[in-house]
Specification:
22 helices, globular
């Protein structure tokens, strides 16, 4: 009996380590790629965000307030911290979307082996819980020490109670979000055939990501005891879990008010229902549908329905565009990367539309002229969509399949690089311009919409050429080294550089929209800039070759044999 337990424990450790690293698709990682280094960079970003969220606590205790004002201010920061924690857990849950449930590879590889279904179930759940738990812990590593000191009454017992209440609430709120997603996935997998569930799963994945961001940025700020008990706010409080756990924290911290107790009861009921639904969905999937995974087909081509494929001026550009579109739509990892950037862009755009800008107000713009509160979100959406697509096309769909493109390289590399620009343009700039034009026509005059879309078109051409300046690869096919990805640099560069630059560009365009002469000058300047950048990119591609491997092959190949 003891030997069997040791064997199962050893199998559990092996499966846990493998599944934990499969948060990043290992089929798309180069042999020299370091996934642990990439995960370490994500951890560094979370720690830095925790430090930023803890900075306001230094000034919270310095301001002189009455007891009621201090309590209301504390409610505001408690709500922000709970919302941010739920957002971080939700994003990492979407990132590890399919890692908890069994897939075809698990069924085909592990079922013939002497591995119990229970061991696989525990390893999968433990790996997913570890990812979510680490993200929650790292994000609250600094805030979880600073804010309880300020949100607790005086006394050692009150301080200990505040720490316990804070961490219990954060873990409970993160568990609620994680279990809600698992429950939705598990129930959907039971009521739908597998091929239909896989199609719907991609939509649910992106939809969950957008819902988490939209709730975080658009939720109402109800942060006083009077507003928490007001009848007009009860409908919003019933549908926003952040306020449930706000009530749970204050109830655990010693605030015994009727409105606080009502929210705490909702949090407890919601947590129990979500955990029960997640466990039921997981158990049904492992006990009922694990073996059916092999028998039922995955996503297959539909025999009926309207079929249309985009066609361009050359066969090479058409083939690369169709390949890129299908790769993007069928790959979970690429959808998540693009949804992350696009979701952040939409969140920032909604924030710009919601809050007044520091240097201008909507009323300051001339009547009928596009305001900065409208121009800035359009540029933000375009730039973040380009950034997400640029990062996504660098990740291969299946690294072992790029030999197909190596043996079919029949044309000059410059033609492939030109097709790359067309692919990135049709994936990002063209849809963004069409959507913005449709949204803008009911709000502004057609001449302003045409000029604005032309400016976005030219800016898109410039950004496409700049983003592909040193990208001498074929999208979705070439080697990828996740350890060398500048995740931290890209994240802070987009937030600290791109957003202020977008602000200045929007001000410049608003000034140019006032007269037809300024519009013509702006379009001429942007056209000249686009032509210059295109010439620079063509010059850099003149002598370049397609780089299928990120690291060049050495002259002498080592076997990497390790000695004892």
């Amino acid at each position: 009996m003891t030997e069997n337990l040791r064997t199962e424990a050893r199998r559990f450790r092996v499966l846990f380590r493998h599944i934990f690293l499969r948060v990043i698709d290992l089929d798309a990682v180069s042999a020299k790629g370091d996934t642990t280094e990439l995960l370490g960079k994500f951890a560094a970003i979370l720690i830095m965000l925790s430090i930023i969220w803890a900075v306001p606590s230094l000034f919270f205790g310095l301001e002189e307030r009455t007891a009621q004002e201090r309590f209301n201010a504390g409610l505001g920061w408690e709500l922000r911290l709970i919302s941010a924690t739920m957002l971080v857990v939700g994003l990492f849950t979407v990132l590890a979307w399919d890692s908890t449930f069994p897939d075809r590879r698990d069924a085909m590889v592990l079922l013939p082996l002497p591995v119990r279904t229970g061991t696989l179930f525990l390893a999968k759940v433990a790996a997913s819980c570890t990812v979510i738990g680490l993200s929650l812990l790292l994000f609250n590593c600094v805030t979880g020490s600073a804010w309880p000191l300020l949100l607790s009454p005086h006394g050692l017992f009150a301080l200990i109670r505040a720490f316990v209440a804070y961490w219990f609430t954060m873990v409970a709120s993160g568990t609620f979000i994680f279990c809600c997603v698992l429950a939705v996935q598990g129930i959907t997998a039971q009521i739908m055939p597998r091929r239909h569930f896989l199609r719907l799963s991609a939509l649910l994945q992106v939809l969950a990501f957008c819902v988490f961001l939209a709730v975080f940025f658009l939720q109402p700020q109800i942060t006083t005891l009077h507003s928490l008990g007001a009848p007009e706010n009860q409908h919003s409080l019933a549908w926003l879990p952040e306020y449930w756990f706000l009530g749970m924290f204050n109830w655990l911290n010693g605030t015994k008010r009727p409105q606080i107790e009502a929210l705490a009861i909702r949090a407890a009921i919601g947590l129990g229902v979500s955990v029960s639904g997640a466990l039921a969905g997981l158990l049904l999937c492992y006990l009922r549908t694990l073996r059916r995974t092999i028998e039922e087909p995955d996503i297959v081509a539909s025999r009926v329905g309207f079929r249309w494929s985009p066609r361009l001026h050359t066969n090479l550009a058409t083939a690369m565009l169709q390949f890129s579109l299908r790769s993007f739509l069928r790959s979970r990892q690429h959808r998540i990367v693009a949804a992350f950037y696009l979701g952040v862009g939409f969140a920032l755009a909604l924030t710009c539309l919601r809050i007044p800008l520091a240097h201008t107000m909507l009323a300051n713009a001339p009547l009928g002229l596009m305001s900065l509160r409208y121009l800035i979100p359009t540029f933000v959406i375009l730039t973040f969509a380009l950034a997400g697509a640029r990062v996504a096309i660098a990740i291969p769909v299946a690294l072992s399949a790029n030999w197909v493109f190596r043996i079919t390289e029949l044309r000059r590399p410059r033609q492939y690089f030109g097709a790359n620009r067309i692919v990135l343009f049709f994936l990002t700039v063209a849809p963004a311009c069409v959507v913005i034009a449709i949204v803008s026509l009911p709000l502004y005059s057609w001449d302003q919409v045409v000029v604005h879309c032309a400016a976005l078109f030219l800016f898109g051409l410039v950004f496409v050429d700049l983003s592909l300046l040193r990208f001498h690869k074929i999208p979705f096919t070439c080697s990828w080294l996740p350890g060398r990805a500048n995740v931290q640099f890209a994240f802070w560069a987009y937030l600290l550089v791109l957003i202020p630059l977008t602000d200045h560009v929007a001000q410049w365009e608003q000034h140019a929209l006032e007269t037809p002469a300024r519009r013509a000058v702006m379009l001429a300047y942007l056209s000249t800039l686009a032509i210059c950048v295109r010439l620079i990119s063509r010059y850099s591609d003149r002598a370049a070759a397609i780089r299928f491997e990120e690291v060049p092959e050495p002259v002498i190949v080592g076997l990497d044999l390790q000695r004892d």
